[in-house]
Amino acid sequence: MTAPQTMTEVGQLVRSAGRVVSVDLPETIADVDGYDSVDDSTKTELAGQTMLLPRRLSIEQRRTRLLDRLKHDYGIGHADVEFAADGTIEYLAVGSRPAGIGPTLAPGSVAVAIRADPAPDASPGDAVRIWCREGDSLRRVAGGELRGVAGDVATVAVDSDDARRLEADDTYRLVTLPRSPGTERELVSVLRAAPETVITRPITAGDALDGATIDSLPVLVIAIDRGGLDESGQLALPAGETRLEAGDVAYVLGRPEALRRLAELEREDRSGEPSPTAHPQER
């Protein structure tokens, strides 16, 4: 027997031994709602491609293996895949997020590299005050959050207005504060770095989500913009029995597949299928 010479021949040999199964990706690759789009060239390369996966995997294990392949082989940040009962792929959507520190910054803040001497035990995430020397005294320049240290250079996240007061040629002293950064900034940073994403869903009269309870949805509702509840007009982390009303704007957190289920609930309602209250929450 002649030994296989190419990767294609190796794949055919392994497949014939019954150890792997072929999985064909759809010809149309969609975009994941709420995430940055993947390059068209990458989606074109993926469309219709055949991937080999171990045969004795459950559907959920196949999903995990496929998502890992997409991430490591193609640089896909996020994907939503739907398998049929027979193991074929019915739907695939992909999305990406910018790498680096930018996606973790809260609105209105920037990251700046400065010459500084943070405390030896300071670590990323610490709240700091930035001081500079003026003659024999120190002047407070700004407050921020330490993001990293390399030698005598520290990267700090500060308000964009404060960044204008930081000079490239100056050396600063960082004082670590005995508290964490503001709750709002910390929450935004965590959400932007998490696999989930936040999108808004306006509620109109008579649509699928009008009257639906929070705990009946396949996503986490982190806030509702509704006038009259308090000074800001927003209800944060509403209780599960809270019902959405026409005129609300819901801020929902979920993975790609959960956001797609939410869109499917809306389509089902328009076609006369069961309303969202009939679906358990899956986050």
Automatic annotation (TrEMBL):
Any one Gene Ontology BP term: potassium ion transport
InterPro entries the record matches: DUF8167_2nd, DUF8167_3rd, RCK_C, RCK_C_sf
Annotated DUF8167 domain residues: 21-96, 110-181
Residue ranges of the region described as Disordered: 264-283
GO molecular function, one term: monoatomic cation transmembrane transporter activity
Top-level taxon of origin: Archaea
Domain annotation RCK C-terminal: ranges: 201-265
Protein name: TrkA-C domain-containing protein
Lineage: Archaea, Methanobacteriati, Methanobacteriota, Stenosarchaea group, Halobacteria
